[in-house]
Amino acid sequence: MRIDGRDYRTIWLDPDGRRVHVIDQTRLPHRFETLALDSLDDAARAIRNMVVRGAPLIGVTGAYGLALAVARDASDAAIEAAYARLLATRPTAVNLRWALDRVKALLLAAPAETRAARAYAEAGRIAEEDVACCESIGDHGATLIRAAAEKNPGRPLNILTHCNAGWLATVDWGTALAPIYKAARAGVPLHVWVDETRPRNQGASLTAFELFSEGVPHTVIADNAGGHLMQHGRVDLIVVGTDRTTRAGDVCNKIGTYLKALAAHDNGVPFYVALPSSTIDWRIADGVADIPIEERDAREVTHIAGLGSDGVVSEVRLTPAGSPARNWAFDVTPARYVTGLITERGVCAASKEGLARLFPELAA
C-alpha cells in the first residue's frame, strides 16, 4: 500500500536478505517509523508489545523470528527454544502457531548447515502467500460490496468495521479492508464507519490512518455508536477480521465484535468476517469454550496516549488512581450471528459444512 507516495509492506528484508524491518505500529498515526529486527529477542518483543499486530502479520513475523534465531544457532535445541519463546508472545491468534509449526517442521528435517537459508526462504513464502490470500479475499469481498451497493443506488454504501484488519494487520492488502480497497478502486461509492476500538484504539489510529492514506471516505465513531447507527438504517454492511476461527465457524476478534454482531442480528444488517485459511483452527469447534483469550496490561484501559497541541505525544490517566481495571483483548462471536465468511477461496456459510466445502483437504 502507498504512504506519502511510497509503496510499503508491513515487513521486509534488507538487501542482504537477513535483517528484518517492520513498521512500528505503536507510533501510528502521529509518527511513521520503521524498526529493524536483528534477533530472536527483537522479534519476540515486537510481537508481544504490538509493534506488529494482526493475526497474519504476527505469523509472518514469528516465521522471520525463527529465521533470525537459526541464523545464530541452528541446533535442534535452539530451534525448539526459539519456537517456544515466540509462541508464548500472543496466545489468541492461531496464525502464529501455524507459521511457527510450518517453519519448525521444515528445519528439523533439514541438515543443520542449510537451516538458516531454508528458514528465511520459508518465511518469505509465507509472506508472499499472505499477500496473495489477502488480495483474493479482497476480490471476493468486493463482489459482495458491489452487489450491496447496487441495492442502494444513489448514495454511498455504509460499511462498519471494528479494530484494524487492513494491510497493517497483514503483509499487504488486509482482510476486512481488502474488499473495501478493491471496491473503492473499482469506483463503488462507499463510506466506512470506523469503530475507535478501545482500549488500544486500533480503529481510530490504524484503520483511520489506512483509509485516509488510501483516500477512502470514512468517519471515526465511538465504539458504542454502532448499534444506534444500525437502528437508524445508517449501516448497510459490516465486515470485520478474525484472529482465530473454529472449524464450526465461530470467530474470535477484537473485544467488542460480539456486541456488534448482536446489534447487527437485531437490525438485519449483514455481518461478514474476512479471513485467510491460516486463521482457521481445525482442532476446535466451540470458540467460547476453547479459544484462549489474551488478557493484557490494565494500563491500556486506565491510560491513553494522544498528540497534544504542542506536537508532543504523551500519555494521560483516564481513571481514578485507585480503581482496578481488567483488559480482555478479544471476544468470540458464535457462528449463528455471522452472515458469511470471506476467504481466499470464496464466500461460505459460517459452519463446518461451509468451511469444509471450500477447504476439504484441511477439514479432513
UniProtKB/TrEMBL annotation:
Stored Gene3D superfamilies: translation initiation factor eif-2b, domain 1, Translation initiation factor eif-2b, domain 2
One GO MF term: isomerase activity
Residues at the site labelled Transition state stabilizer: 163
Catalytic activity: 5-(methylsulfanyl)-alpha-D-ribose 1-phosphate = 5-(methylsulfanyl)-D-ribulose 1-phosphate
Residues annotated to bind substrate: 53-55, 90, 202, 253-254
InterPro entries to which the protein is assigned, alphabetical: IF-2B-related, IF-M1Pi, IF_2B-like_C, Initiation_fac_2B_a/b/d, M1Pi_N, NagB/RpiA_transferase-like
Swiss-Prot/TrEMBL keywords: Amino-acid biosynthesis, Isomerase, Methionine biosynthesis
Coiled-coil blocks: none
Functional summary from the UniProt entry: Catalyzes the interconversion of methylthioribose-1-phosphate (MTR-1-P) into methylthioribulose-1-phosphate (MTRu-1-P).
Family to which the UniProt record says this protein belongs: Belongs to the EIF-2B alpha/beta/delta subunits family. MtnA subfamily.
Descriptive protein name: Methylthioribose-1-phosphate isomerase
Organism: Methylocystis iwaonis
Lineage: Bacteria, Pseudomonadati, Pseudomonadota, Alphaproteobacteria, Hyphomicrobiales
Gene from which this protein is expressed: mtnA
